[in-house]
Amino acid sequence: MLEDCRPGSDELSVESTDIESATRRSETGPPGRSGDEATDSARGVGKRRARPGEERYDPLRLEARGFESIPDSELLAHLLAQVVEEGDPDAMAGRLLQHGRSLADVVSAPASWLRDMVGLKDRGTLALRLLWEMAARLAREEMVQTPVLASSAGLVTYCKVRLSRERVDQVRLLYLDGAQRLIVDERHQTGTVGAVELYPREVLRRALELDAQSIVVTRGQAGRSARLSSRDRADAKALDRATQALGIRLVDYLVIGRDGYASYRAAESCATSSKAGGQRRS
């Protein structure tokens, strides 16, 4: 009698197979994913957790607000939010700007300083370095749209962006064609803090190779105020004589410092004016 009440052996086999298959599917997850991956997905492992107030970084909200209205600290926080996985971007931005003098100081700061200040990792330091390089190239594009000497402000802006944040002294050369348009901007020499060499023979050789008609020399003075030293004046005078002999014009010799620049031509003009004034009075 009991045997007549049990399901048939074939039916029992089908039900057992279905239960085992369902169990395996729940353990292994969808096809193509391992059991560990499915379990991690269910637990939220591997997903970046949303930070409090993260909706502030929504691009549509920022665009509606107007990017130009965002203060430096918040702008930096928005950038950091795109590249850091842990930490509070607002707190990080605030600390960086507190210890750096400006947004430019932070963006151009050494990776070691960024790591020490807020624990910024390679992805974050790279993002800031790329941003600074983009700024330099944008400044260069603005400069080359017109003859270089027609926009002295554009020339100085580019040189400041390119050189003022360097960690060691550096000499760059801008070679111009007959229409005063930039042919190429090249690094001539990299030195140490407070010392870098200028080699007039190499400058002239390169000018002849490029068929350049004029040259602008720029020297970055790492971490210091812009000042023409006696060595700068001597180098500029020697190069000026050498270029004139070849029919090439030395437009100027600029020293770019952390907070400004000094011009050899401007200094010579002032000296000449002072001398002429003294002669008239005598």
Written overview of the protein:
With 282 residues, this protein is an alpha+beta fold. Among the domains are: 72-135, Orthogonal Bundle (DNA polymerase, domain 1), CATH 1.10.150; 146-277, Cytidine Deaminase, domain 2, CATH 3.40.140.10. 55% of the residues lie in helices and 12% in strands. It has 13 helices and five strands. The chain has helices at residues 2-5, 9-28, 35-43, 59-65, 72-83, 89-99, 103-107, 111-118, 122-144, 152-163, 200-210, 230-245, 264-281; strands at 170-176, 182-190, 214-220, 249-256, 261-263. A five-stranded mixed sheet has the order 2-1-3-4-5, sandwiched between helices. α5 packs across α6 and α9 (122-144) runs antiparallel to α10 (152-163). 23% of the residues are buried. Mean pLDDT is 77; it is low at 1-17, 25-30 and 37-50.
Descriptive tags:
alpha+beta; 13 helices; Cytidine Deaminase, domain 2; 5 strands; DNA polymerase, domain 1; five-stranded mixed β-sheet; 282 residues; disordered N terminus
